[in-house]
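Here is one chain, start to finish.
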Amino acid sequence: MTLSSFSRLLGVTLACAASLMVPAVAQTDFPSKGMRVIVPFPPGGASDTLGRMVAQHLATAWGQPAIVENRPGAGGNIGAEAGAKAPADGYTLTLAAAGFMAVNPSLYPKLNYDSATDFQPVALLVKAPLLLVVHPKVPAQNAREFIDLAKRSPGRITIGNGGTGTAQHLGGVSFGLAAGVDVGHIPYKGSAPATTDLLGGVVDAQFDNLVTLVPFVKSGKLRALGVSSTQRVAALPEVPTLAEAGLPGFEDGTWYGIVAPRNTPKAVVDKLNAELLRMLSQPDIKEKLLSMGLQPAGNSPAEFGALIRSEIGKYRTIVKTANVKID
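Its structure:
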């Protein structure tokens, strides 16, 4: 081999080595530009608040702009598809919710994303227990009396929800299955109209997020019978869990977390996870979440992935057992 040939070969080798090192360098420099958090729901709700909390924290922590992009529609499927198909570089995150991640795979015959394989879990943010409330006209002072009332009048007690297949609807279905009662599930186009009809006495009860119902409970317009978490919640410490109130082991509700597109580099995912856990550890963040009826969580990417897979199986069973079908 001539000296000139060796020089050319050495140059090519060094160039290839340099090109292989670029991704690693880019990962250690992450983030070097602005980020976006896709929220697959309209502005104004608990999910939107969480998405903006995450965006603001990351922007402050890393000195890069971070925006929220609301992509509502089809029970979260539109935003989920956008998040799944985004570049796998960590600059596009999606606020994941139990509904479109765990429930929708059993409700919709065809989705343009696979929640089990198209996302890289980053971290669970919060758990959101549901609250069972009744209109004051309902002659039940606690969950046990409500169950007894429903057993005496099969199918006559009505529970409003934010739509077929929502966490609120399936929470009511889970409650009915666990209690062995037949109740009428009345779907609405969102929680707000369901709550309006409950306040007017059109329906008897409602399962919904605490952030929606707590103000009406505290004002005496609705009566709280129990929460679906394993422990009482700070927003309503006097209200027992449904497990305490007569359904041992009962737990239900929704959750929210952050996911990235599949194949996002592990170094980027780990850095995002560490920063989100730091966010959840801050006292002011904890206080705000608890005031919303949300329970700060936090876990590893692997643990969050295991939760998603477990929840997919859980809701597949509920949907099949109760024969829930999307309209």
